[in-house]
Amino acid sequence: MLLDVATPPNRPAKERAAALLFLTMTKGIKKRPSLEATLWRLYCQDKHEVVRLTALGAMAKLRLRPSDPAAAADYLYRQTIAEATCPEMKAAIERAWPKLFTEESLLLAEKQRKESAGEGQP
């Protein structure tokens, strides 16, 4: 129900962000299928900064990890060094990073990326 409020782009951004905040307080929400994909999509694609910040914060609070950690980490890293990225977004990324990624998950994702690209093959 809360995702139904948070995802439509035609709803007011503050209303959508509030729904995302309440989402993190909902018992059992982590079991919802594709929740991390929905929150990641909102972070990456929404045009309203408040929705993007809240979606990233919700992922971190719920400790949901993006399905492709290497690509997600690369995307977030590029966001932190981009001049157009506002200081609030950079700070949110820095706060969320340790909750979204473990060192092991990033190393494994990098190894899988190299294997699929044929790097490291004799």
Short description:
The protein has 122 residues and is mainly α.
Describe this protein's structure.
The protein is mostly helical and 122 residues long. The protein has one domain. Helix content is 68%, strand content 0%. Helix 2 (13-23) runs parallel beside helix 4, helix 4 packs parallel to helix 6 (87-100) and helix 5 (69-81) packs antiparallel against helix 6 (87-100). The longest helix is centred in the last third of the chain and has 15 residues, at 103-117. 23% of the residues are buried. The mean pLDDT is 86.
Can you lay out the helices and strands and say which pair or pack?
Blueprint: H1 2-6, H2 13-23, H3 35-45, H4 49-62, H5 69-81, H6 87-100, H7 103-117
Please give a handful of descriptors for the protein shown.
122 residues; mainly alpha; globular
